[in-house]
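Dear colleague,

Following up on yesterday's call, I've attached the two folding results inline so they're easy to grep. Please treat them as preliminary; we haven't cross-checked anything against experimental data yet. The first protein's sequence and structure tokens come first.
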Amino acid sequence: MLVGWELLARSGWVDPVFTGSPSGVGSALGTLVSDADFWAVHAYATATGFLAGWALAVGVGLPLGLFMGWYGPVRDLFEPLVMAFYSTPRIALVPLFVVWFGFGLEYKLVVVFLAAVFPVLLNTMAGVRAADQRLVRMSRSFGGSPAQVLRTVVLPGTLPYALTGVRQSIAHGLTGVVVGEVFSAGAGVGYLMNQAAQLFRTDTLFAVVVLLAATATVLNEAMLRLEARLLRWRPEELSAPRASSA
């Protein structure tokens, strides 16, 4: 595919101004990674916005999903609001966030948080509700309090689901921060992509996409290794839980 793409661009069958070329993308990628301003300004702005929003999403999604799954009154209280926000296209709220929070870190934090929190919350809640009821009943029959049952039975069974949600939230959070920067930001990878598109610098645009794909792949692989380490206690024949629709 890459060879065909290069040949089409060099032969004039396609206009490289609109399609770029592998050699041009490689050159643009080398220019980006060797540019100190790219790392100090754009990559730093995107990384801080993503990490702040993602950490907040995990910090809120895990306990809220746990309590919504375990305690019926908490679920009844929050589930309508959660599903209303989950069903609303978050991109439609971006102009409102710009008005409220401006163009800085707070704006990116909110966009990333709303993009990343639902996979964590919904997968954690699904894990709690999928707890083995036989083990729950046995624990209660031996005098286990609700807190003990939650800690010793439900939490270990929920962990695979929660980690799956955390891993999904990375991709959602990266999408959120880039989309937010494309719409409105003074710096960041999304801002750089928007500038490249307006100036028809297609090679630079593809180069940024390659960097984002590489970043997402590395983070996903890191989460997979963390999952494998934390779930070493599980029997090997148990398959990983299916991710929820988040």
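Below is the second protein, in the same order (sequence, then structure):
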Amino acid sequence: MADKPKIAVHKFASCDGCQLAFLNLGEDLLTLARMVDIVHFAEAGPVDPEAAVDIAFIEGSISTPEDLERIRRIRANSRQLVTIGACATAGGVQALRNFADAGEWIASIYAKPEYIQSLATSTPIAAHVKVDLEIWGCPVSGRQVLAAVRALLSGVPPWLEKDKVCLECKRQQTVCVMVTQGIPCMGPVTRTGCGAICPAFGRDCYACYGPAENPNTESLARRLEGLGLVPAAVARRFHFINAQTPAFAEAGARRGKVSHD
């Protein structure tokens, strides 16, 4: 059909994991291909980065001057822009450099640092252009992306999970690792969407889906200290995948300066 809506998937500074969430949809990806015309998705084949599209999906953070120019062009060519994953929504792991002097790191690694074109910080897409929808996760869930596409094409607001991982554990009757084993867990302040995979296998949540609604980070920080973590170790729990979200950045900052070397 010539009039099918057009979508594009663009990559910035990231590991490609969220693009793989698209590809791992399997048969559902074929269903998606019947609904839309995928005009740009370099990892899957089509390449047309300047195409005008109905929906542009963005993976990755803004880390270079070229990134900044490119995201502005993509925004101008897109009716709706959706960020997918921790890098695009919160700066990602690479945003840990925001806590230090990036120029010093570059100078200590490269013999000719003047040839390295890099911004001083790694920032989410929303810091630079208007974003219509953010889908959280590291990586995102393929089913969430597919559901968002269906909703956007139908003209209705996509429904995204905002409950805490703890609630998901209760739904699945997963035993709390923090209560029963004394394992420091980020579940009480992290939004679900992953299906609470880590606690189901007896390990702690490490907040890959970012802050939940109304996260009581101070209460959790005190509980983690009660389990034996020193303030710097508590700060590192918040200063990780989604370190640049306001809730986690502030919670970590209250525990003092942390080295991320």
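For the second protein, one point worth flagging: The chain has twelve helices and five strands.

Best wishes,
A.L.
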